[in-house]
Design goal:
Strand order of the largest sheet: 1-2
Order of helices and strands: HHHEEHH
Structural class: mainly alpha
Radius of gyration: 17 Å
Shape: globular
Length: about 190
């Protein structure tokens, strides 16, 4: 796990990459039939057209290609969530941008929410030294729910793929990102 200094430096790099990645997302969406820049206003309502478009952009990595560690988003392999090695490099870029967008939607919706380095008074906390948003009943890492949502897209692309441990995984829908937003908004701390 990262030390305190490294975690603070990582948070600064993470936040410095936010605006360029969000601009990239808006440009990509506008250029490929996605939501127009004015639709990407960080509102709850923007999440459905964003996710509906984004799901159609997802591509699987060619089976003979390995992940290039110099090409992956900065969170790849740093988070306790499983790294999605089956997605193409371009899809990993898109997932990265969606994570930034989702986090920014939550930050703007919660008065006083801000980015911090996650710390807990106990050992082995999943968000220890990770970028988290404050203002919720507990600090929230916007990365953590996204692999589950993205995993559901995988099964849209590969419907006959066996599910892990026989678990029934519902198919992805355009409402998944908005529904996750609603779920997190129920966890906003009382003033």
């Amino acid at each position: 796990m990262a030390g305190v200094t490294e975690a603070a430096e990582y948070l600064q790099r993470y936040l410095a990459a936010r605006e360029p990645r969000l601009r990239w997302l808006a440009d990509l969406a506008a250029g490929t039939g996605g939501p127009a820049p004015e639709q990407l206003d960080f509102s709850r309502q923007s999440l459905v057209p964003l996710w509906e478009w984004a799901m159609k952009q997802f591509r699987l990595r060619d089976e003979d290609k390995v992940v290039d560690p110099t090409r992956v988003p900065m969170w790849y392999g740093r988070s306790p969530a499983p790294a999605a090695y089956w997605w193409s490099d371009e899809t990993l870029d898109l997932i990265d941008a969606v994570i930034y967008y989702f986090g920014e939607c939550l930050r703007r919706a919660v008065p006083g929410a801000r980015w911090e380095v996650g710390h807990a008074p106990y050992r082995n906390w999943v968000n220890e030294n990770q970028p988290v948003l404050t203002g919720f009943t507990s600090p929230f890492n916007p990365f953590l729910p996204i692999p589950n949502i993205v995993g559901r897209v995988y099964y849209l692309l590969r419907p006959d793929e066996p599910r892990p441990n026989g678990i029934e995984i519902p198919p992805a829908t355009a409402h998944d990102l908005r529904d996750q937003f609603d779920n997190e908004m129920r966890k906003v701390a009382s003033p």
